[in-house]
Request: fold
Amino acid sequence: MVQPFCEPIAASRLGLRDNRLMQQHELSRAQTLAILASAAILLSMAMGMRQSFGLFQLSIVRDVGISAADFSLAIALQNIIWGATQPFVGVMADRHGTRPVLVAGASIYALGMLVTSFASAPWMVTLGMGICVGLALSCTATNIAMNVTARTASAAKRSLAMGAVSALGSLGLAFASPLAQHLIRVEGWRIACLGFLALAAVMLPAAFIAGRADRIERPTATGVQQSVSDAIREAFGHRGYVVLAIAFFVCGLQLVFITTHLPTYLDLCGMDPALGSTALALVGVFNALGSLLFGWLGGRYSKRFLLGGIYLLRSLFVALYFMLPPTPASTLLFAAAMGTLWLGVVPLVSGLVVHLFGLRYMATLSGIAFMSHQVGSFLGAWGGGLIFSRMGNYDLAWQSAVAIGVCAGLFQMTMYVQPSARMQAERAALNAA
Reply:
């Protein structure tokens, strides 16, 4: 007897006006594009603003009277809160749908920017940019956006769709960074925070539209029902998932170190402050190309080798850039190279989780793996600031990022990629049917 692989989320729990869930193939092209575009807008706004916070560092340190280490700690807490809450937010999305999660996240993001704009003490910076934005990112950024995308796209187009949403989502940095730099220079950093508040407001309608993915019924297959705890035990019993989660650490460490400390590093080297925002904007542009590229490649070639290759190449580019005195040309080349490798990991990691365990608890399991990423982000932000405050330079920070990146890249390439026994049985039964 064929039984559902997972029970669809009850329509009444989602607040829908009818009790009928839709199949993927019932979506019109316009409906599919609207959901995916809204997921991309949420990802774009959330990540674009967050990755531009490094531009605020010098002004906030000067005006609020905090140290670089204090600012770095706020960003580090943002990342650790994001990681610590992501599994719980993933469980909420899997159980109750993505719409309430997305709407709450957009609202908290706006609150965080409002609090920061009035900051007059270190705790207000920590509350706004740290705690509020960290929680908001759990609800609006990569993990939930990929969950919406995986639900909406067919299996054949899933990797490319996740790459496309990541690509469009990366464009937020291309305009959030120049916007922040312009407002900081002309109006001051407090007005720049209010500019980001306006961008957060754009996330609200996008959250409602992306939440339509909750109407899409998940695929069915034979097999026993799984609880959240069963899914977590299955994941931690799979050695490939454990490798994936541990190696994901280096992604957060390298990227947050760059977004938080590159503007300060350039200022330390006597470069034009505008170069930092230009570099971050260039990261966003090339990120779009790289995400689309790796989404396409992930549907054709080994995701584990592509992922390991990204970690190794990032380490190589970081080493080459920081070993030599920075110039405007080398900085922009570095930004382009790193941008190409930036969010290309997202469709690969998400695709591997779906490959190993299916869609039912994708948000939960991706969220748990993401905790490792955010531990790396915490160390990249706070550790970089601490090293700079103690030593007056970033040498030990970038050297550590390179060494850890090489180890993680090689480790990732050893990942065991056979799906769980449950998924193998369910897919075999589905194919036989």
